[in-house]
Amino acid sequence: MQTNSEDLQRQSLSGLFWATCRREYLLSFRRKSDLVNPLIFFLMVATLFPLGVSPEPGFLAQLAPGVVWVAALLSTLLSMDALFRSDYEDGSLEQLLLSPQPLFLVVLAKVLAHWSVTGLALTVMAPLLGLMLFLPAEGMPGLMLSLLLGTPTLSLVGAIGAALTVGLRKGGVLISLLVLPLYIPVLIFGSSAVQAAVTGLPLGGYLALLGALLALALGLAPLAISAALRISMSS
């Protein structure tokens, strides 16, 4: 009987997780502006950057790893404010906090859905930006792998700032101030991994550090997001 009860509980939690993901995907595709704006911003940075500095291919190739990573970071920040905003405005966030269901699991599902429609899409678009910035072909695998490991961390950390500012009218600026210092290690290791791939150096160490940051964020960020939501709603 105890085993059957545990199996039912696991199935219930799994159903809650995937139901939340499905709901977030539906909401994302209904709000097409929130879905497309980060991708357009990501593309605009790569388009305008050569006009602001120099169109010389060698110069752009040297800056390409950092430019692509900064563009991905800012694009993720651009989409973070809407993560809990609609739930807060329609009252479903308050109901979620009062629900007996584990909040950290719902939060993790929301962040996963957010990453899959923003961070994963940015990762897929990254080779196009690399080509526009004359990034050598040797750097493309490092670019894709570093973004694949780094963008989930950006979403998890950014969700903490979004949860803390969900009740504020202009929370977007505060999110940037709160989470940008925490983004710096991901930015450094991600761009360094791409640079190492370009120069032919081993990039396994940088990818391992990005993976460690992701594991740390997966373990701690959902709990921090849950606590931040309770603080925001109680104030």
Please characterize this protein's 3D structure:
α9 runs antiparallel to α10. It contains 10 helices and no strands. It has helices at about 1-30, 30-50, 55-80, 85-90, 90-100, 105-115, 120-130, 140-165, 170-200, 205-235. It has one domain. With about 240 residues, the chain is mainly α. The mean pLDDT is about 85. Required for the export of heme to the periplasm for the biogenesis of c-type cytochromes. Keywords: Cell inner membrane, Cell membrane, Cytochrome c-type biogenesis, Membrane, Transmembrane, Transmembrane helix, Transport.
Summary keywords:
single chain, 235 residues, mainly alpha, 10 helices, 86% helix, elongated, Heme exporter protein B, cell inner membrane, membrane, cell membrane
Mean pLDDT: 84
What is the alpha-carbon Rg in Å? 19 Å
The geometry reads as elongated
How helix-rich are the residues, as a percent range?
over 70%
Alpha carbon gap, first and last residue? 43 Å
Give the tally of structural domains: 1
- Uncertain runs are none
- What string, H for helix and E for strand, traces the elements in order? HHHHHHHHHH
Gist?
Helices cover 86% and strands 0% of the residues. The chain is an all-alpha fold and 235 residues long.
